[in-house]
């Protein structure tokens, strides 16, 4: 979780001050259109990824969508967390109910709560919070609660709420009679399904491959953010009060970042140029600002009011935020299918520019997927991604060969490595210094074959790299990329030799 920034130059005026509004001004909430909601039949609901691919062409244009499950849980989340999981406790974050000025002296930060909670103790705190605000809020429609939330935030009072976030575990029941717990939409089983890209991973990543729980109270908020590596996400609402979501379609992601940079953040807290600077601050997941700012600047925003028994899907590179309407329990996890690969490539480029550590071995996942499925069912956008990756590697390998850098083979059993310079994941080819054991990706300007420690670098090629290139050439021969030049191969020239 983010920490407060150190002070640099003081910004005398907050850009958000012009957006402080009076009670009547919250009518802008009615201008946000609802995202689509889908009601699959039991037959359609049988396979999550087949159904998601069916609705994606339409739903992805909105950034988020709801799916109302035709299968209901027979064991409540409360019973799972109190009876099936022994000793269930969780920590919380305290969230201020105000909008920060977003300058060097006032940035968004959530503080760790003072105590651990059980499900029951947190519910008691949530009831107290509701009574402090208004006992009637629990009986009022989400549209009213939404207005009340933004009034609280913009008035800048000193109140706080608690939110249990990133709690490892699942509230889907293990009871064999629970139909929801047995179905493929159980979030803990998604990673192993045949169409899941995560099936190639040999380890779990909490929150990405394995679900986490989110237990909230009135006005508990999740800040504006995009998923790691621009992944999809799926969130199931187990129980309690509704949750209000806002989503910005992926094709408006850059516009979102421009608005955040120009209308929300002071320049003295941006460490990188352009939209990358805003992306870095947003990535701390403490940025809350009214969607009105986006609407005023021509950025599309859609809304979902999620109730128990409903899934919310966010598509790749979709910025989203929201808040709870009262005590509730949700569960979320990321997922990736083939359509994600072009987005993952763009995320990787940005991570490398910012020297941001990768979480997923993108290149390894890409080439394992296409090597396993060489058929024509692979989307053309994924084939284009493979071709781009192979061309980039070949261009880099030619340059390194001209430096007379020795080439050697790497055992296929070894996984991905991380570039010491830009933190990019490396799988098919990279350099290694045998002395200091530093790994470097091929996308840096090498002026000599010498490492900074003085020893020679060696280019390591995975033994099956030529098989991957054969797949790429097959894609090219299908003429799906007619405007591209032929692949000029350095890989196929047999340059690997003992160093």
TrEMBL record:
Keywords recorded for this protein, A-Z: Iron, Metal-binding
Keyword Iron: yes
Entries under InterPro entries matching the protein: JmjC_dom, JmjN, Znf_C5HC2
Any one of the GO CC terms: nucleus
Start and end residues of each JmjN domain: 35-76
Domain JmjC as annotated: residue spans: 182-352
Pfam family, one: JmjC
Keyword Iron: yes
GO biological process: chromatin remodeling; regulation of DNA-templated transcription; regulation of gene expression
SUPFAM superfamilies recorded: Clavaminate synthase-like (SSF51197)
Molecular function as annotated in GO: histone demethylase activity; histone H3 demethylase activity; metal ion binding
PANTHER family in UniProt: LYSINE-SPECIFIC DEMETHYLASE (PTHR10694), LYSINE-SPECIFIC DEMETHYLASE 5 (PTHR10694:SF33)
Name of protein: JmjC domain-containing protein
């Amino acid at each position: 979780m983010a920490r407060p920034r150190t002070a640099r130059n003081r910004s005398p005026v907050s850009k958000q001050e012009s957006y402080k509004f009076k009670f009547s001004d919250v009518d802008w909430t009615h201008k946000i259109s609802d995202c689509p909601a889908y009601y699959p039949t039991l037959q359609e609901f049988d396979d999550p990824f087949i159904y998601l691919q069916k609705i994606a062409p339409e739903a992805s244009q909105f950034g988020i969508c709801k799916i109302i499950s035709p299968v209901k849980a027979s064991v409540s989340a409360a019973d799972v967390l109190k009876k099936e999981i022994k000793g269930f406790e969780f920590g919380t974050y305290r969230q201020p109910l105000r909008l920060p000025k977003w300058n060097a002296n006032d940035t968004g930060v959530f503080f760790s709560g003072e105590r651990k909670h059980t499900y029951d103790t947190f519910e008691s705190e949530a009831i107290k919070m509701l009574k402090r605000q208004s006992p009637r809020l629990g009986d009022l429609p989400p549209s009213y609660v939404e207005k009340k939330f933004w009034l609280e935030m913009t008035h800048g009072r000193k109140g706080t709420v608690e939110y249990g976030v990133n709690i490892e575990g699942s509230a889907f029941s293990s009871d064999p009679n629970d139909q929801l717990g047995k179905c493929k939409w159980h979030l803990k089983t998604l990673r192993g399904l045949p169409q899941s890209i995560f099936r190639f991973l040999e380890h779990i990543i909490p929150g990405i491959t394995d679900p986490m729980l989110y237990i909230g109270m009135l006005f508990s908020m999740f800040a504006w953010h995009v998923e790691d590596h621009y992944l999809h996400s799926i969130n199931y609402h187990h129980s309690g009060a509704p949750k209000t979501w806002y989503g910005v379609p992926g094709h408006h992601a850059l516009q979102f970042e421009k608005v955040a940079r120009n209308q929300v953040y002071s320049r003295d807290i941006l460490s990188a140029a352009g939209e990358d600077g805003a992306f870095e601050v947003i990535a701390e997941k403490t940025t809350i600002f009214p969607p009105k700012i986006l609407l005023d600047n021509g950025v599309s925003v859609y809304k979902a009011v999620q109730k128990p028994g409903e899934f919310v899907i966010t598509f790749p590179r979709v910025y989203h935020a929201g808040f709870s309407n009262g005590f509730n329990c949700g569960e979320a996890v990321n997922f990736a299918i083939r359509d994600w690969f072009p987005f993952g490539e763009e995320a990787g480029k940005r991570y490398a520019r910012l020297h941001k550590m990768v979480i997923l071995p993108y290149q390894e996942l890409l080439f394992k997927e296409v090597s396993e499925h060489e058929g024509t069912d692979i989307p053309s956008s994924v084939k284009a991604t493979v071709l781009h990756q192979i061309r980039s590697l070949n261009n880099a390998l030619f340059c390194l060969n001209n430096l007379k850098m020795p080439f050697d083979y790497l055992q296929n059993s070894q996984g991905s490595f991380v570039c010491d310079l830009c933190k990019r994941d490396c799988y098919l080819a990279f350099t290694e210094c045998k002395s200091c054991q530093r790994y470097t990706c091929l996308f840096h300007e090498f002026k000599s074959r010498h490492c900074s420690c003085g020893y020679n670098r060696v280019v390591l090629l995975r033994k099956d790299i030529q098989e991957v290139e054969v797949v790429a050439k097959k894609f090219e021969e299908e003429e799906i990329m007619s405007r591209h030049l032929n692949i000029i191969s350095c890989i196929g020239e047999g340059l690997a030799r003992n160093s």
